[in-house]
Amino acid sequence: MKNIKIVFATILSLNILLSCKKTATTQTAPVQFTPAIGEYVLSEGGFGGNNTKLSYYNNSTAAVVGDFFLQQNPSIPSGLGDTGNDMIIYGDKLYIVMNVSGRVTVLNASNAKFIKNISFIEGSVNKQPRYITAARGKVYVTAYDNKVSVIDTSALEIIKTIPVGPNPEGIAASNDYLYVANSGGFNVIPDSTVSLIDLNTETEIRKLKVGVNPNKIAINQAGNIFVSAYGNFGAIPPSTCVINGASNSNGINLGSNFQYSHIRIFGDIAYLYNNYGGGTIKVFNTATNTIVRNNFITDGTIIATSYGLNIDELNGDVYIADAGDFVAAGKVTCFTNAGVKKFSFSLAPGVNPNTVVFRR
User: Fold this and answer.
1) Is the peptide bond before 77 cis (omega within 30 degrees of 0)?
2) Contact 147, 164 (CB under 8 A)
3) 31 falls in which pLDDT band (50, 70, 90)?
């Protein structure tokens, strides 16, 4: 406990320094969110099964369409493809990262009508795109060619690639920087760095030390960067590190109470979980460095496998994607930020749901 207190005190001092330091970054007005009309849910399916599904839940009618992509695009009976890994809405488009199919599929955000596939296959090599973020009118995608691909959102083409570390996974943007988790997951010894990319030049400046096999990146209201890591699935457990956003220095490990591979942050509240079984999610206040509670859910609702977690930025509602036994159809359950269930819906025939985005 003493060591944890020392870590918390150190992070608190970093937060204070961050709030005092003046930066030259351009301040933009906060995004004004309107109530969600519905939710798109990406179910990755089984690896190699070519059975990724895009579902849609209508908030007004509580109706769900399990294979909304096929309904909206009957001329593409083959469906989305293999292993949908991530998804975002940016502008008027929905971008879906198809890992095994080796492409980013672009749809109209209002109706999921197909627009274009952006290929990540070069010759016979699939670059295996992984995760996606957007900033300054561009979309950025990590891929296992050890690069971040830059997509022009008008031409819908890759216009540049940025070399980073091995097997990059999670990616996030903050102020003038991109942060990329270099997992090195295919190496005998995994990596343990985050690439810091200057958005002005779209080049890597340096690498920052974090936990072993970093996976997800989330940024709190103060601009500090939290990085969750898998470890080596053996002697080295999962971990969570925090990078000070003002100095962009090496990450500080939060210790044994934060052994989680996945993290999401809304404002200053972090949700931490492991996605390989079990539904326990820790809630942590990143501003006060205090654990809010060790189990997010407070009403006894059972989640078999927390496989994805997304937050409605209008009201803080938490949507948990439950993969169940990884074979049967998954489901999504919506909770208040107090951990009380509001509603849930099945995604049949969608298996292994991992991402929820909000149609507004």
Assistant:
1) no
2) yes
3) low
